[in-house]
Uridine phosphorylase (Coilia grayii), 652 residues
Amino acid sequence: MTPGFNDEKNGGGESGNNVLVHNPNLDAMTEDILYHFNLGTATHDLPAMFGDVKFVCVGGSPWRMKAFIEYIGRELGLADPTNEYPNICAGTDRYAMYKVGPVLSVSHGMGIPSIAIMLHELIKLLYHARCTDVTVVRIGTSGGIGLKPGTVVITKQSVDASFLPRFEQVILGKPVVRSTELDSDLAEELQQYSKDFDDFETVIANTMCTMDFYEGQARLDGAFCSYTEEDKQNYLKEAYAAGVRNIEMESSVFAAMCKLSGVRAAVVCVTLLDRQKGDQLTSSHDILQSYQQRPQMLVGHFIKRRLNAMDKGYPSSRDTDKAKSS
Amino acid sequence: MTPGFNDEKNGGGESGNNVLVHNPNLDAMTEDILYHFNLGTATHDLPAMFGDVKFVCVGGSPWRMKAFIEYIGRELGLADPTNEYPNICAGTDRYAMYKVGPVLSVSHGMGIPSIAIMLHELIKLLYHARCTDVTVVRIGTSGGIGLKPGTVVITKQSVDASFLPRFEQVILGKPVVRSTELDSDLAEELQQYSKDFDDFETVIANTMCTMDFYEGQARLDGAFCSYTEEDKQNYLKEAYAAGVRNIEMESSVFAAMCKLSGVRAAVVCVTLLDRQKGDQLTSSHDILQSYQQRPQMLVGHFIKRRLNAMDKGYPSSRDTDKAKSS
């Protein structure tokens, strides 16, 4: 039952940090089919397709992840003149994947099981492609607690519905507890860059990750609700006291799996409403859309600065100015 | 903490079974926004749009649910001559929804949290639309245990990773256990209709519902694997001994929520492989596609027979013949 660590595939010539898998079976397989991506080691040259990836951004919505690749393509001066980015997973409707330069953008659907399938296959993809020094950021939406709607939260710790920083993975019918620790340096770095954006607040705080959007988050507007408004408010107060400032549905397994695979990881979510004031998303479509762009802008700015620091020669027009956020 | 039962909306004039919500807050809301469907009571006339729905088919993949509505439209003789079914949820990429006559087809993504969000909003939709006598069927894919790939499994009981027929819903941070009982008469009826299909087997058996596709289902080909082939085979043998013949990721919360809302529900999944013989989906695209059509054909046949029995005047060309399954 000892995990196998497969971290020697890059050979001795490279000094970067590899993406780790912990599965002694993988190297013995003649072919690895990444079923939900419609990709595979026998059918695709994964090192050629993905070997240069340094940043992976993931988010629930396929449309948002397409918008992100268009945005970052423009920001990095790598935009396709036709602005058409093919969906690399076009053969399936499970996930959507786009790439420009060293940036990969992948959708993950909603909830822990959906993102977990994607992350298993993403980690194997990065491993097979022999990627090094990869940073993975989840950009998402969330409900806020005690924050002005539109505030961006960089996750300090991802906690469960009891406010504990743990993710329970069931293996062979038995629960195995995993740490949901994220990279604190990366979180700090992102917060530093957030100061370049004048028109929204960014905070570092705990994020509660739930299994459900309605009863699991104490909403009063689901098909079923067996608790009172007072019960809800008390629960949100307890969460607030535990340092929780936003609630979403993927961060715990994201943190746990990224940590196991040795990639630097961060979670950057915008709050669409203050849950202490309501449950329904009543803001206009345009306002909600503009909120959703904020994590994209912050993470895009971070990627650009990082690439410039790595002296890759990408354009740096925005580096000396205040970043524009509109 | 007593649940409110909202089941009187149809008034005294109708005798059908209503779709129940258990939320005393709903009737007091001036507007109910079904956010992940991009529908709402103030913006859409839900009774006019959905009041005639008698059958709802749900499945993970939006493409498959589009294919299903095209199939059932043809089968019921209700096909749009252009064969174009607009996506009712076109304003969002979270779920896709299609309708023809009394049949609604909705995608739910992968995993319990994703289908749970959809079901909360679907149950509220059916309630607001004042639908009666609704049957909901999940048509999906699964891994089989000890069955020939392509076999269809009608779920008797949905069990968890410990083989218990229960679903744990966390509410205000505390677990609440719900029954995953499905309608046994409906399962039997579906199995009777399956005899009209010569070229595949259909069985009634238990279905294991897991939180994860890789480690949660004892696969050996994930990014992480801390157990041996022998551990895996022993776990699958235990599952088999508990009556489990297939494994998927949504049936438990589907059964629990349908039971709470008083709708008749069934789970009909095809097995894409025998997990005792492997983990990877190595069958050709065409074979996997043909397998995925089997639950659609069986449920389509069932709907057609039911509608004929209800004397709705839908075509009955296939009723006296053996159903064709190709």
